[in-house]
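#lab-general

N.A. 3:47 PM
ok so I finally got the sequence cleaned up, no stray characters, all 871 residues accounted for. can someone with queue access submit it? mine expired

B.Y. 3:52 PM
send it over

N.A. 3:53 PM
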Amino acid sequence: MRRFTTSSAMVVVLACCTLFPPSATAGPAESDPAATEMLRLGLRGVYFVPNQGQWADSEVHYGLRSRGLDVACRQSALTMHMAREANESNATTKASPKRERGGVGGASHEAFLADASGSLRESAALDRLTLTITFPGSHAVLPVGGNPQAAKFNYFVGGEDRTTASDVPSFGAVIYENLYDGVDLHVMGNDDGVLKYEFHVAPGADYSQIRIAYDGIESLCIDDAGDLHINTSFGTLADGAPVVWQEDLHPLLRLGGGGPGRGSSSDFTEAPANTAAHFSNHPHPDPPPQSRGREPESAPSRQHLPARFELCDAHTYRIALDGPVDPTRELIIDPELQWMTYLGGIREDEGRGIAVDSAGNALVTGWTHSTDFEGRNNAHHGGDFDAFVLKVSASGALQWMTYLGGTGGDFGDGIALDSAGNGLVTGSTLSFDFEGRNNAYHGGVYYDAFIVKVSATGALQWMTYLGGSGDDYGIGIAVDSAGNALVTGYATSADFEGRNNAHHGGADDAFIVKVSASGVLQWMNYLGGSRNDYCFGIAVDSAGNALVTGWTSSTDFEGRNNVLHGGEYDADAFAVKVNASGALQWMSYLGGSDGEFGSGIAVDSAGNALVMGATYSSDFEGRNNAHHGGDFDAFVLKVSASGTLQWMIYLGGTSFDWGGRIAVDSVGNALVTGYTYSTDFEGRNNAYRGGVYYDAFVVKVSATGALQWMTYLGGSGDDYGIGIAVDSAGNALVTGYTFSTDFEGRNNVKHNYNDAFVVKLRIADAPQLSVAATCPSGGPIHVSWSGATPGRLAALIFASEQGAFVLPPQMPCAGTILGLGSRQLQVVWTGNTGPDGSGAVGRTAGPGACGGYLQLLDVPTCGTSNVVRVE
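B.Y. 4:20 PM
back already:
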């Protein structure tokens, strides 16, 4: 379900361009070829009829037949078939009319309203013209009927194999929902038979996506009045200049009183039993008044915006707005996408880890194959890949980029910051000559782990190899209050330098290493059991203890306080705590009867560990909801400072969902990222972007394990969220990599192939509501709130029951889930909050108000307050 992101729905109104020349058979002659009411169908009203077999072409889903015109509504396209007497002439005709006799040459897209028996409604002496209107870059969308009409149609086709269709309904409009992201197309007519189309652009959606292309014409041009002229073999057709407006206030916010022009004296009175009908989820409501013709300029609830046509090429045009959309009436999705920046060069680039300094700048690490990485302050070292570290300002501007590595392959995976803003990076390297090294490569078949320190300005401070004679991989890193770096990963080396215990066995052991602020190795601990063990995430608490997560198949993992859960993949996620001197405190298996994989960990102010990962188990221990289906669900769980599982929550939809990394805000909420193939991810506040497989995502989970919201990130290609961090204001910054050239929120262009990226999301806290009431009825009832958007619109909503009412399409904040039921649902107050986001309302209780429930909808963020009972 698409969610509104501004309070102002933008509507682009285009009167249909098909004005026939004076001699055409479609209707009375027009003296002005640029008249705004373009197509007069010669009948009273417009009737779109669904194809129930009466037309042979199954790709026609709705059709309109009129004197001189057939219109076929197809998937993401309209075909218009025009006819006129063959001996007609027209002084404005640009070229000789195309002459067709006895049919349309067998072209199936032109014979779109052939009867099911194959016959065409035609004369042997007619000139014919077929125009096809498409929408480049749009989604594949089927039309649906809107504005049902009373008229019914019967089709009785002659011949032995005749097909009949009786009692076929009719509609005054057809609607292409979400033709572009957040954009619906409405094709409709008025009672005078004038056909036109409108684009309804959901608040916050990008109107510039819209493209209209004509096939079967000679050319397009725009005259001095801004009208579009369509040059065809029939002559010149025309579209009047577009009309664009924004709704000032949606009718939802006027229900129950309190909206503009309604005063503010409404009470909490019992609503009629059918009040909830105002919130009907009917997908195709009757079109608003503007669908009956051009909107009067004096309409008090709309602000008209200057707009014009703009040609893209000889057959395609778009709609351009002159000046910005009124920012004072925007609604912001919670979270709001602040900006997105592509990072990279002409070859492959991946962002893997991200950290944020005290000023809100983001430092990102990953790896790159590009020798021309934007913002570089040094040269690519050689080999296939270099690690990198870069800095992006709080506003999304690239500050600098530094290659890290040597002549072999080098891969950055984790990054952390010390109190001075220096970046500590870990990863894996094949290079014997890694720049800045203070020790020697240890050997191994392939890889050593490494730590690099880079200053706040991008200058390399030092580099340390970590490992032994086998292969060793650094993946996660954290920094304690003294500036020491703690690194985790996994190793095949039994002789890892600095070890204070023995390799446990199996091919791989997890490990933790501590390195001083000057790059000196302090100690190393193996973690695991007799089988394979892998660490991927690490965090440090205020006492300097390290908490790590990953996954293991060992039933005898050292320090365990429970048993392996088992599973098809013979793997559990785990959490381990090690103190500042390297001593193992405890280890907890995490999971169910199938496989689990821990990928990220963070620590809250109380020392609790929050773990992110992916699971195949439907019976994950500690779960507070059900597995969504598909292969894997992402998960988040909380483990106490002593190793006790507090809760676990599944995240995802009915397809594949994979957890990446996790961050914790100042009040203990978890912000997580990953990637998903699910179009129905629970808690979503926007739509899946597309791509062959994956969208990145961000999810917020409360400190008690409740899902707050989920946001898809990306474009029409595949997008992968890998790393996440939270700044001091609670904003989330995400990195990963993308194949999308149209990533939402982008402030620059994709470099090539896959790019790394950084996205910033503004996270707003939910408003808080309080009620003081005197019951039974008679009041007064005093309602107050805080935490709403300062000076902006809010709505106070009442219902007689709690529940999970979803605000339907065509409403502000569509898709938002209220904590109220539908019985006696009504808006009892709307208005602007105070300059600090607070507000208060006093009312006298009406019958039935006491015992009911109230919730505040913060319209700019679509955030909802807690639900309070009136008692």
